[in-house]
Specification:
333 residues, mainly alpha, ABC transporter involved in vitamin B12 uptake, BtuC, transmembrane
Length: 333
């Protein structure tokens, strides 16, 4: 009876925390649509709030799609990091660490150089392809009688360095495109439209649902490999599937806003400190906190030096870098 009561209290605390994070996201979402170079005053009484959101051009055409894209991007990066940290059993694993983001960046910059008069959709397509290609490259090189988590991370770091060097070389050779490339490489949400949201939203929904379905296997990866095999889980096959899901989530985000570092690193690690290794809860918490961080970073970047903008990726890096150093100092490797 006592254990049932403790379980009830534990579940109640989880639900309260989820509600708190959801309400905090709504608050940041509203502030993200109001604050900016041009101040907007809204009537928040129901149902006038919906009328104002749709009929205010500044909000509906510019800020609302931008903020919605920021939410999806935060969810995608956080879930991608959540998956990578599970399958590698390493708190330092993230899309920007093992080469997925840099692969997307390289192919995006390459597309700007090769297709100088290309239509707008070439860059996100190139980024998506680059992230998936980088993922497969890491998998193929690191595969040797199965995938070793340490070998996977080391291969990812090597691929990351290679693609970063390639990106720098292209930018040096093509200085005319440096401005537009730098804005994208910094992780900027500037100019995001409803078209960008319509692209990334289905990716976010599908990625979240699939990740949630794999929550049991994500938790199992923290067990000894003999135990994992004993409970009927094919390690290599599931590690490959989850690696691809992570690449899909990261690719869809990078293709729209560029690489925003540290969201996929700090969010899952922080959530695991708070809730342990229940991956159903981790996935929900990570999604909400990731969305809050990206919307908050974009809002700060737009307002702190208005009318000038600081890309959300730079703000997120300023938040994440100290935490990354803290993880390195605590790591045994």
């Amino acid at each position: 009876m006592n254990s049932i009561f403790k379980q009830y209290k534990s579940n109640k605390k989880v639900y309260i925390n989820i509600l708190f994070l959801f309400l905090l996201l709504i608050l940041i979402f509203i502030l993200g649509n109001i604050l900016g170079d041009v101040k907007v005053h809204l009537d928040f009484t129901f149902p006038h709030i919906f009328y104002n959101l749709k009929n205010n051009i500044i909000i509906y055409e510019y800020r609302l799609p931008r903020t919605l894209v920021a939410i999806c991007v935060g969810v995608n990066f956080a879930l991608a990091g959540c998956i990578l940290q599970s399958i590698t059993r390493n708190s330092l694993a993230a899309p920007n660490i093992i080469g997925i983001n840099s692969g997307a960046s390289f192919f995006s910059v390459l597309s700007l150089f090769v297709f100088t008069q290309s239509p707008f959709f070439i860059l996100p397509v190139a980024a998506f392809f680059g992230a998936i290609f980088s993922c497969f490259l890491v998998y193929i090189i690191s595969f040797k009688n199965g995938i070793n988590p340490i070998r996977l991370i080391l291969t990812g770091i090597a691929i990351d360095i290679l693609f970063q060097a390639g990106t720098s070389f292209i930018l040096i050779q093509n200085s005319l495109e440096v401005g537009s490339a730098f804005m994208w490489l910094s992780g900027s949400l500037w100019g995001k439209t409803w078209g960008d949201f319509y692209f990334i939203f289905p990716c976010t929904i599908v990625g979240f649902l699939v990740t949630f379905l794999f929550s049991y296997k994500l938790k199992a990866f923290h067990l000894n490999e003999d135990i994992i095999i004993g409970i009927g889980i094919n390690i290599n096959r599931n590690r490959f599937i989850l690696l691809f899901i992570s690449a899909f989530l990261s690719a869809s985000a990078v293709s729209i806003v560029g690489p925003i570092g540290f969201i996929g690193l700090i969010v899952p690690h922080l959530v695991k400190i708070l809730v342990g290794y229940n991956y159903k809860i981790i996935i929900i918490y990570s999604s909400l906190i990731g969305a809050i961080l990206v919307v908050f970073s974009d809002m700060i970047g737009r307002t702190i030096f208005a009318p000038f903008e600081i890309p959300a990726g730079i703000i997120a890096s300023l938040i994440g870098s100290p935490y990354f150093i803290y993880l390195l100092l605590k790591s045994r490797f």
